[in-house]
# Entry
Amino acid sequence: MSAGKSTPRQSGAYEAMQSENEELAEIRRAVRSLCDEFPGEYWRAKDAAREYPDEFVDALTKAGFLAALIPTEYGGSGLKLDAAAVIMEEIQASGCNGGAAHAQMYIMNTLLRYGSEGQKSEYLPKIATGELRLQAFGVSEPTSGTDTLSLKTRAVRDGDEYVINGQKIWTSRAEHSDLMLLLARTTPREEVEKKTEGLSMFLVDMREVIGKGMAIKPIRTMMNHSSCEVFFDDMRIPASALVGEEGKGFRYILSGMNAERILIAAECIGDARWFIDQAKTYASDRKVFARPIGQNQGVQFPIARCYAQMRAAELMVRHAAQVYDEGGNAGEEANMAKLLASEASWAAADMCVQTFGGFGFAEEYDVERKFREARLYTVAPISTNLILSYLAEHVLGLPRSY
Ligand SMILES: Cc1cc2nc3c(=O)[nH]c(=O)nc-3n(C[C@H](O)[C@H](O)[C@H](O)COP(=O)(O)OP(=O)(O)OC[C@H]3O[C@@H](n4cnc5c(N)ncnc54)[C@H](O)[C@@H]3O)c2cc1C
# Structure
């Protein structure tokens, strides 16, 4: 017996937003309309050439979306994380790639919370207008991997400057950003009481140091993500680039990571929606054995399952954003949102390729491009294992594993 007749969803429409307030629904519509100007052909050309989508990032900036979290007194919209999450979700659900611009949203949080008034008034208005881009986040290093506390990049105070030596890897968008939020060790690990101390955060004006202590080398990857290695060789930055207190950088990073995880999770929900929508439309149109392939339960059930998985993950993403916006500690919810949403988007990506059959591999449908792009999020910015480890140890109280 059916649970009640409901009207099939329209292609491209997403009615879950009905439970949202009008402001968020309006943001969705506005993002969607901007994204309509950047169709599959645009992304395919950028992907093939491994080019940064400057036009798209400029359009997002001009429309004010990348300044969503910047307070109004600095020229932004002063919105909360739930609005930023809706922006990122809708970009992905439109088939675009928010990976080109998402860092500005989640790095922003660290600058807003811990930056000095001087840093905020100098940089935020320029970031809001697009004069400056804050898109580079230098944490990962080749030798330390996920073990951030073992990172080796050193910042040594010398008068009113810091001298930086070391190397970062996977610093995405470094070639397309003016500012970088950089994590470096200011006190050697052996000299700190707690191993979480001794790391510091810097807001580096890259325009001043490229070719003068900073060198950038792009890494060609599976998808178009503009990731780079960044080398520091006696790079001098003013002491005023320090964000917050010296030695407290790890704490700042941890607090910023909740925002990052919620925003990435929202992107994954958008990706899952895109894959489900594509699969639904294709399965309804494609006829094999003289009937739509979507008439076969072997084709429609995986789509329905992915839809249910996406909707469940979406609830956790919204809940996490709410806890965060209300000022609570969203560690548990942000981690679960990222885990569930990245798994939902990857399941939907796999299902979509299967639904398309051979055409899932043809570039012109964008499925293979989105499939490659969606693969990232169970690995970065934090891998599934590390999220499970957080939940096991910090939420469930199981013994520490590392
Ligand atoms: C395209 C791309 C863009 C990125 N952009 C940025 C960026 O802009 N800025 C930045 O700082 N970083 C960035 N990263 C880095 C990203 O955050 C890391 O790749 C990610 O955190 C995993 O670290 P790792 O690659 O060093 O893996 P490793 O730490 O080497 O881990 C490898 C595997 O082992 C598992 N593992 C490791 N330790 C444990 C353990 N104790 N228990 C169980 N499993 C374990 C991990 O889960 C993972 O699956 C990016 C990465 C990629 C691929």
In short: Residues 137-140, 145-146, 170-172, 221, 225, 227, 376, 379-383, 385-386, 389, 401-402 surround flavin-adenine dinucleotide (CB under 6 Å). Residues 1-13 have pLDDT under 50 and may be disordered. The chain has three domains: 15-133, 136-248, 251-395.
